[in-house]
Specification:
Elements: H1 2-26, E1 44-54, E2 64-65, E3 70-71, E4 82-91, E5 97-106, E6 113-117, E7 123-124, E8 129-138, E9 153-161
Length: 162
């Protein structure tokens, strides 16, 4: 009986060993390896500002710009004078952009000075550029030189990815 039990246990161990070998013969380990890279480039920027119209006797100064800021210092002489600046915005990146926010506000200052801006292009696809204007005006109806002679404008223009 002991001998029979030993044969059964041995046979069971042999079957388990054969099942393990058979399982490993039919099992395959698969490996997945990968790398993701972002190749798009975001580059919406100001590329130029120039005075394109200046009333006689006025001084448009030397308008300056970098990628995100323009600045100018206008000197108006008499009522009715204007200086018109043209600002160029370019999408030099590879991602299309859409206009999200435009806010222009003037600070306290002379009521005789006013600013006007033209609309900006709503969509700016990769490689495209657009221009908009800022006009500085000395009120033509002014009858005397105001006590306060300055007024500043601040603008925020925000493009986001399309």
């Amino acid at each position: 009986m002991k001998n029979k039990r030993g044969i059964i246990v041995g046979t069971l161990l042999l079957i388990i060993l054969l099942m393990t070998v058979a399982y490993s013969a039919f099992a395959t380990q698969l490996n997945v390896n990968g790398v993701a890279e972002i190749t798009g480039e975001w580059d919406v920027k100001i590329t130029n500002i120039e005075a394109i119209e200046i009333s006689n006797g006025c001084d448009a100064g030397s308008p300056q710009h970098d990628d995100t800021t323009v600045s100018f210092n206008s000197k108006l002489e008499k009522p009715g004078d204007i200086i018109l600046y043209q600002i160029t915005v370019k999408n030099a990146g590879t991602i299309d952009a859409v206009l999200d926010t435009v806010v222009f506000k003037t600070e306290e200052g002379s009521d005789a000075i006013d600013y006007e801006t033209t609309e900006l292009k709503k969509e700016l696809n990769a490689g495209e550029e657009t221009t908009f204007n800022v006009k500085v005006k000395y009120d033509a109806d002014s009858t005397e030189v105001p006590e306060i002679k300055t007024k500043a404008i601040t603008g925020i223009i925000e493009y986001v990815q399309k």
